[in-house]
Structure formats: structure tokens, C-alpha cells
Automatic annotation (TrEMBL):
Domain Tetrapyrrole methylase positions: 12-228
Family to which this protein belongs: Belongs to the precorrin methyltransferase family.
Any single GO BP term: cobalamin biosynthetic process
UniProt key word S-adenosyl-L-methionine: yes
UniProt protein name: Precorrin-2 C20-methyltransferase
InterPro entries associated with the record: 4pyrrol_Mease (IPR000878), 4pyrrol_Methylase_sf (IPR035996), 4pyrrole_Mease_sub1 (IPR014777), 4pyrrole_Mease_sub2 (IPR014776), CobI/CbiL (IPR012382), CobI/CbiL/CobIJ_dom (IPR006364)
Pathway stated in the Swiss-Prot or TrEMBL entry: Cofactor biosynthesis; adenosylcobalamin biosynthesis
SUPFAM superfamilies: Tetrapyrrole methylase (SSF53790)
Alphabetical list of NCBIfam families matching this protein: cobI_cbiL (TIGR01467)
Gene Ontology molecular function terms on file: precorrin-2 C20-methyltransferase activity
Organism in which the protein naturally occurs: Desulfobulbus propionicus (strain ATCC 33891 / DSM 2032 / VKM B-1956 / 1pr3)
Keyword Methyltransferase in annotation: yes
Keywords, sorted A to Z: Cobalamin biosynthesis, Methyltransferase, S-adenosyl-L-methionine, Transferase
């Protein structure tokens, strides 16, 4: 694989969004780059765990003897602007060192990541560590289809329309920001709702928004499940890949005056 704008001594790093789960939603560019890359760095949530991104990508890009670097990214909250957890820093640094060894040998490395690499992806924690040590490493980010786009598409619904103001929020928020967002904005996507679903349902019921919400579990995957009445999911054990879309307004196709006189 030939890296654009990279030297003969340095490999090229590719951060590749593979979409939300359906391998047919991978872009042509993602498939091409992953096909050419001889080294994949794949994220896992635990040591020797499986990589969902790898499993999706391999359905479109069969293994032809590539090197797989299994990188563990512990599932802990990251608060930007604050000191990062020591365990996270250690894991990120270890992953970066492993990738750098291959880049320094001139090998291109592809990092497949779920959804889009620029939206709540571990890819940029890895990149920050690599750039700290090798700021000259050439990097290409390949965008992918996000889970929220797939969720809206599965319901034939827009994410935002007209003068809607859209917010994308990690549901792990445990302060008044979430209440304020739900109260003031027109459309809200709540990511990673699996651990706080019952609390979220209570809040949405209090705000009169429960009927505006749809919950999609494992969007784009064979196990996809949709809750158009989110109250039916109360008490359920949901998969990590669970997203809630809340829309307050619908398209008005006739004016009230016309409707009354029709």
C-alpha cells in the first residue's frame, strides 16, 4: 500500500470508520484502504477481547494474512479538560507504542473503528498519544456512517430538519446539563444509554417527552431491536450499542387554517 505524502521510512496511519454494524454501510474508500493495509490495529474493551469493528470490517475485507494488533481501551469515562485516569493513560500509551513500532518500520497501519472516527471514537485517544511521540506521522481519517444516522434511517425519520437544533449527548451525563438540553433543544441523540435507561425514561416522562423518543439497540446489526415505546425497555439489560433519538417536532404538511376549512 502506497502512502500519500509519507516518507519511505515512515508508515501512514489510517483511522477508518466502518459504520454502525451493517458491513454494506462501509464506504468504498474504507474497504479499499482496509484491503490494502497489511497491519490492522483493532480496538477491544478488554484484554484478549473481540473487536466489533474488526468483525464488521472482515465481512467486507477477508483476512489475507494481515497482522492484527489487538489494542485494549478500558471502558472508562473521559472528561476533557481534566486529568485523565492513570489506567487509561497507560493503556493508550501501550497501544500507541505498539502502533508506532510498525509505523517506524515503514508499514501502513489501519485502525478500524465503529461508526465515524470523529464521533466519540477511541481512534483520537490513540492518535493523540502517537502524535505526542511522532508528530510527523502522516494521518488520514476516513469518515464512516454514524450510529445515529443509521438509527434515524431505520425509522425513515430525519435527525434534524428545517430550523431544528440538534444535540448529540453521551447519556453518561449525571448533571443538570442533560435536563437543560432536553428542555431547550428540538432534537437530541443520546449515545450509550444502556446503563442509565431507567433514569432517562423517568426524566423523559417528567418532561413530557417519552412519546417523542425511539430507542434502537444494535442498529444495523442482525440483532437490531427497536423500541418505539421506550417504556417497554425499562428494566431490560441493553447492549452497549444502544442509542435514543428524541424529536419534538414533526413536519407540518397543512396549515391549521386550511385543515379546519378542508
Amino acid at each position: 500500500m502506497k502512502s500519500d505524502n509519507s516518507s519511505a521510512q515512515t508508515g501512514h496511519l489510517y483511522l477508518v470508520g466502518v459504520g454502525p454494524g451493517d458491513p454494506e454501510l462501509m464506504t468504498y474508500k474504507a474497504v479499499r484502504i482496509l484491503s490494502d493495509a497489511k497491519v490492522w490495529a483493532v480496538p477491544t474493551a478488554r484484554e484478549k477481547g473481540l473487536s466489533s469493528a474488526q468483525q464488521i470490517a472482515e465481512q467486507m475485507v477477508p483476512d489475507t494474512g494481515r497482522t492484527i494488533l489487538s489494542l485494549c481501551f478500558p471502558m472508562k469515562k473521559v472528561f476533557l479538560g481534566q486529568d485523565t485516569d492513570a489506567q487509561l493513560l497507560s493503556a493508550w500509551r501501550q497501544s500507541a507504542d505498539e502502533v508506532i513500532r510498525h509505523l517506524d518500520r515503514g508499514s501502513d497501519v489501519a485502525f478500524p473503528t465503529l461508526g465515524d472516527a470523529t464521533l466519540y471514537s477511541t481512534a483520537f485517544y490513540l492518535l493523540a498519544m502517537i502524535q505526542e511521540q511522532r508528530p510527523q506521522i502522516p494521518v488520514t481519517v476516513v469518515p464512516g456512517i454514524t450510529a445515529m444516522a443509521a438509527c434515524a434511517a431505520s425509522q425513515a425519520s430525519p435527525l434534524a430538519l428545517g430550523d431544528d437544533v440538534l444535540a448529540v449527548v453521551p447519556a453518561a451525563f449525571e448533571d443538570d446539563r442533560l435536563r437543560s438540553i432536553l428542555t431547550t433543544l428540538d432534537a437530541v441523540v443520546l449515545m450509550k444509554v444502556h446503563k442509565r435507561l431507567d433514569v432517562l425514561i423517568d426524566l423523559l416522562e417528567e418532561l413530557g417527552l417519552v412519546d417523542c423518543a425511539v430507542l434502537i439497540e444494535r442498529s444495523g446489526m442482525p440483532e437490531e431491536r427497536v423500541y418505539t415505546d421506550i417504556r417497554q425497555a425499562r428494566g431490560c439489560t441493553l447492549h452497549y450499542f444502544s442509542t435514543m433519538v428524541i424529536r419534538k417536532k414533526k413536519v407540518q404538511v397543512s396549515n391549521e387554517r386550511n385543515a379546519l376549512t378542508a
